[in-house]
Amino acid sequence: MPEEKSTMDARRRFLSGASTQASSIYRGSEVRSGTVMALFAAATNRTAPLAITVGKIALSSKTLEGEENAQLPNESSTDAGQEQQRIMSSPRLDSRAQSGFSKSSLYDQHRPSYPANAVDMLLDAVRVAGIPGASIVDLGAGTGKFTELLAKRDERYDILAVEPHEHMRKELERKALDNVTVKDGLSTSIPVADETVDAVIAAQAFHWIANGDSLKEIHRVLVVDGALGMIWNVEDCCLGLAYGDTAVFLIPSTDNQTKSAVPSTSWESKLKDLIWSLDDNQPRFRHEKWRAVFDDQLRSTPLTITAFANPLFSLPLGEHEEKWTVWLSKEAVWDRFNTLSQIAVLEGEERERVRQIFDDAVNSDDVETNEKGEIALHGVTVTAWTTKVP
User: Fold this and answer.
1) 146, 116 in Cβ contact below 8 A?
2) 66: alpha, beta or left, given left = phi > 0 and alpha = psi -120 to 50?
3) Could you tell me which residue ranges the Methyltransferase type domain spans (predicted)?
4) How far apart are CA 347 and CA 106, in angstroms?
5) How far apart are CA 91 and CA 101, in angstroms?
6) Which residues of the chain fall below pLDDT 70?
7) Count of domains in the chain?
8) For the chain, which terminal residue's Cβ has fewer other Cβ atoms within 10 angstroms, N or C?
9) What's the predicted TM-score (pTM) here?
10) Which parts of the chain fold into alpha helices (H)?
11) Which residues pair with 323 in a beta bridge?
């Protein structure tokens, strides 16, 4: 075990030296991506995305056809996007997030945990699997759904759970998890010293904090070969971008957001339409706006990086998805549905209207039930990761 830790320290020292050389190359003049890629690949001995592979960046939404050929959003979608950007860039917790997640005990009770295989894959991708005592920041830890899984691991990680929402933080503190320190904090002010964290993981949270200041702060706290991991549980009714085998291409909606993925059943499609009708311009995973903060690190052509590029994290992102099905009573599905912040805040006639639509959907003919009367709820766990550019 100590040998693994010493090997990790040796790799960091080597990477630190290599990064100085690489930085002078790609920050000092216009170069092809191969030189930088070779330096970082040799230093880290990984096949996951580490360096700035510009040829693949060309496949991003901004450079595939060129920004000058991008479709201009309509006025309403621009306003919605600006509002989402305002919330993601805010140095404090948005008031609507405060109210939407105020029922923290219900959130903790009804939100799902994460599939073991997806967790294993993510921890391996961010380089802490099998590393005893590795330092991890669970950023936006909420009530600790992911923190619990980290605390149970044989590696006995040194875990800092950072959560700005008071009610959620108290719910997490109540669990008294082993090797977990719980602190108030924001993605722009993580309460740890420079270069002391092996991995930062945001579970069900990164879409709220996808801004440049957060990336800079995460970059600050990570060790020289540290990594950022992201994970989401997404029910079919909350899908936006096409995941899995149901769709291949993005189909922009009228409000310039992506809602192309097709749920597994028509009743889940009805719930998806309902959720999109209640969209409140808050940042959501389904909007896919969280990806832009990584693409925005670079202003480059598909073939070169210019002297003005100063990337903090490698591209392209590593990504994995894992489909799942759970069996729940209809009331349990409603309880889970009700943990969505835009549903949780509804009151009066609007809440009654939404409940009626929900009841109609879960009583549809295509709802699959088992012998207990439970219904099949479908979804996908999405993981993404990237590594620090020293």
Assistant:
1) no
2) left
3) 137-228
4) 17
5) 18
6) 1-108, 110, 240-261, 299-309
7) 1
8) N
9) 0.71
10) 2-28, 33-44, 54-57, 75-89, 95-100, 104-110, 116-125, 145-151, 166-174, 212-221, 266-277, 292-295, 330-337, 341-344, 348-362
11) 380
